[in-house]
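Marked as duplicate of an earlier ticket. Keeping the data here for the record.
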Amino acid sequence: MDLSPILNPLNDAQRAAVTAPLGPVLVLAGAGSGKTRVLTHRIAWVIQAENSSPHNILAVTFTNKAAAEMRARVEKLLNVPGSALWIGTFHGIAHRLLRVHWREAGLPQGFQILDSEDQQRLIKKIVRAAELDETRWVPREVQWFINSNKDEGRRPQHLKDGNDPTRAQLIKLYAAYEESCARAGVVDFAELLLRAYELWRDNPALLAHYRRRFQHVLVDEFQDTNDIQYAWLKLLAPPQAIAAGQQLAAGDARPSYPFVVGDDDQAIYSWRNARAENLQQFRRDYPQAQLFRLEQNYRSTATILEAANGLIAHNAGRLGKQLWTEGARGELIRLYAAFNERDEAEFVTHRIREHVARGGLRREIAILYRSNAQSRVFEEAFLSARVPYRVYGGLRFFERAEIKDALAYLRLLSNRRDDASFERVVNLPTRGVGAKSLDVLREYARGAGTSLWEAAGACIAAGSLGARAAAAIHGFMALIERLAGETRALALHEQVDQVLRGSGLVEHYKRDKADRGEARVENLDELVSAARGFTPEASDLPPLEAFLAHAALESGEGQAGEWEDCVQMMTLHSAKGLEFPVVFLAGMEEGLFPHQRSTAGLDGLEEERRLCYVGMTRAMRQLYLTYAEQRRLHGVDSYGQASRFIRELPEELIEEVRPRVQVSRPVAVGRFRPEEPAVAGVRLGARVRHGKFGEGVVLNVEGSGAHARVQVSFERQGTKWLMVQYANLEPL
């Protein structure tokens, strides 16, 4: 049999992984090292060289796009239909199993799947049926509680309330939600995985059948698996059976073998309940697993890879690898210290124009940032310079739901007859104003030819609304009048800030424990900054009305289409799996990146560093890092320092790009002039050992000489402030 089409395209490390003897295999695949090629060629190898049937293959990944690409490559490589193999996402494979075995799974044959919005609507009904206050029991928070527990394999009956009334109520809502789903014959996305796991766990004969069938189980992006996904894998390929080399059931020739591919240096989804430690756990559960490292990179220049290696080396507990390339050395990494966020955006715009002038394409360029809110200043700069752009995987700033919510409040302050704004926020945050009450107002307004605001006043006076709805709408109208009075004499950004907080919008989104909540609060804060930096063109309009007109015009400017030659803008999380010839990593400042909330503990800081590593390794030819010495956050000018991640890069790989106009700048802000602590070796980001508290990471340094102190996050003792002269810290 000619195996050359399978083996010839592979490098030595890839070939070793693809041809590994049957058994558990862990492949550490660095960024741009060809992991999809290894997965598809492994499938081809076990079919052609190990005489396995395509029906013996199960391959799972995390996105439909990745699954489709894997299937297409296998079809091309083997010239067999992809339908013969089970290749799909975790959710897709689970759905397929449940459709086949709906009866054993305790589901109706025609069960339906709830998307996230449908799930939230159902939870809202359950909260109302329990006569609970939606401002206290926010449906999004309840949804997060339910899905998080499902991701960890826990049903309501498995949970203990610990005498905590809040937790006890959440458990009751979870149980009521399960009952409602069962009655309606529906499942949510988290339920697909949990129900498929339980299907195998509770049906030994069925599990034995699939163990016999799926002798090769391949898992992509293993660092992104959660508890239930890993438990699902171990059911199908039990470590104890492999270790013993025993048959699992009558007729089994051999156990199922897991072949997992992942990269602990690209584990950036802990907020989705992904467990990066599953890679380490895999080695403990399958001690005989063969380990292969894919370190040759086919994407980036040697300079970019060496810088990325230098950065990620600061993380402890890695399985470890060093990316390298046979490609070009490449240009140095360019570092630009902007005066402020506008100067940062102008610098990026200028470099984009230079790239295009040299014959480059705009779509070759990506702007990556830690916080979604950072997009606004770049959007303004690009619109002004007529640079087409597209926000990848998201909406433009003024199109985002939370910004529209805030603007609706502001528009009502300016014009009570704005019906669209009234409808948008009369029940946001939730006040108990339902669809029926709004129908009453709309009907009155149509009949009387008035606005909804005027209709509300008339209906309340006439007693046309229920007592609860009438009280809620009256309270809302009183709130608008009060905010209008309180903000009338304030500066524009103070008006916006007061309305955001007085309306309850900020608190409303802060309570959202899902990943979107924090991003939405950051966007609201950025709206305050936008208001403070707003300079109206010559106009007789009051500042608030001029700002609202500006926002409307901005949101009316459609972003470029996917097919157009345009700059790509996205968060660092959205960039994983993508690559671009030119990458700008913007906002490289302490508190912004790494994010402020992540610097209190070692785990959070290391995930931020992995996120930076992911961002750097998106760049193919040229990488720019930018930070602002002064940045306007929440309407206030703050003076930060360059991110510790910049200081952790090898100095010889960095070229500082000086501003076009030289001005005096703080000595401690520059890339190579960080403030030195009193004791040599104790610096920001350094790992140290304390005689009593053990090992930790230096998070902050204050003062000098005898008064110097450091903040250290210890792995077992938490975060502590220590006087340097007494701490006797040992650099590691």
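See parent ticket for discussion. The CA atoms of residues 606 and 670 lie 24 Å apart.
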